[in-house]
Amino acid sequence: MASKAKAVTATIKLVINAGQAKPAPPVGPALGQAGLNIMSFCKDFNAKTADKKPEIPVPVVITAYSDKTFTYVMKTPPVTYFIKQAANIKSGSQRPGHAVAAEISVKNIFDIAQQKQQDVPDMSIDAICRSVAGTCKSMGVKVVSA
């Protein structure tokens, strides 16, 4: 028995707070353009993220198929979210490179890299650590070796 492969019509990338998917923008218009069932996605996403804190941003990659069905993959929160949590700040520096918003330890960077490795399993932990350190620099967060 040969099964027909579904044709992919769209790939939609969104960042939605955990348990906060609603048919309002940005979710509704993005899924509506692809002709997908918005409420089905919202209910399923909210059920899967019910155990997470509502302020946690969850990146989602939605793949829409030609028969109006879809699949989606939830990723780990953005690196900036983890850095803000580790440094206990609301936002980065207004002037990165000039003013330091906070400090973060190398151990925290390693912990963040371990969590992000779920999204990029083919990258080495060292490369992910360098990427996280670069994000810290662009946010005005100083990396200390303590």
Written overview of the protein:
The protein is built from five helices and five strands. It is of the alpha+beta class. The longest helix has 15 residues. The chain is elongated and about 55 Å long. The chain starts with 7 loop residues before the first strand and ends with a strand. The model has no long low-confidence stretch (mean pLDDT 89).
Portion of residues within helices:
25-40%
> In total, how many beta strands?
5
The run of helices and strands is: EHHEEHEHHE
Query: Low-confidence runs (pLDDT<50, min 5 residues)?
Result: none
Helix count, DSSP H or I runs of 4 or more residues: 5
Tell me the Rg in angstroms. Answer: 18 Å
* Quaternary organisation: single chain
Features:
three-stranded antiparallel beta sheet, 146 residues, elongated, two-stranded parallel sheet, alpha+beta
Topology:
Layout: E1 8-17, H1 27-33, H2 38-48, E2 57-65, E3 70-74, H3 79-87, E4 102-105, H4 106-116, H5 125-139, E5 141-144
Parallel strand pairs: 4-5
Antiparallel strand pairs: 1-2, 2-3
Helix pairs in contact: 3-4, 4-5
